[in-house]
Amino acid sequence: MEDESISFTCEVNKVGVQVGWMKDGTLIVPTEGFRIESVGTLHKLVIDKAELQKAGEYTAFISQGVESSAELIVRGMLKSIIQYHRPFEYKNVLDIIENSF
């Protein structure tokens, strides 16, 4: 759901293995909204706030060419009110039936 925190976790079999993260094939660097954490063999990518533009394929990779990917789908919520430029026209159903014959 939009605005929630999300994390991807990758566990490797040895301490000290470097894990990189990509989104749709582009390298992710820690910036506002993205955190990369590592404790022992556990590596994590944290997305602080899920937004529609952050949806995509996320990949954890190591230098030996081994990788794992997952798809992030963000469901958005309607945040604006739709305004109609003209009001709906209501017609009596009997008037429609009588005028169509």
Describe the structure.
With 101 residues, the protein is mainly beta. The protein has one helix at 93-99, and strands spanning 6-11, 19-23, 26-27, 34-39, 42-47, 56-62, 67-72. A four-stranded antiparallel beta sheet has the order 3-2-6-7, with no helix packed on it. Strands 1-5-4 form a three-stranded antiparallel beta sheet, with no helix packed on it. β6 (56-62) and β7 form a beta hairpin. Mean pLDDT is 79; it is low at 87-97.
- Which word captures the global form? globular
Oligomer class: single chain
- Rg measurement, Å: 24 Å
What's the number of domains? Answer: 1
| Major sheet summary line | 4 strands, antiparallel
Indicate the mean pLDDT.
79
Secondary-structure class: mainly beta
The CATH topology is what? Answer: Immunoglobulin-like
Strand order of the largest sheet: 3-2-6-7
Strand content: 35-45%
CATH class: Mainly Beta
**Residue runs with pLDDT of under 50 for 5 or more positions:** 87-97
Measured as a percent range, the helix fraction is under 10%
Number of strands: 7
Supply the number of helical segments. 1
CATH superfamily: Immunoglobulins
The secondary-structure element order is EEEEEEEH
Task: Tell me briefly what this model is.
The chain has a four-stranded antiparallel beta sheet, with no helix packed on it. The chain has a three-stranded antiparallel beta sheet with strand order 1-5-4, with no helix packed on it.
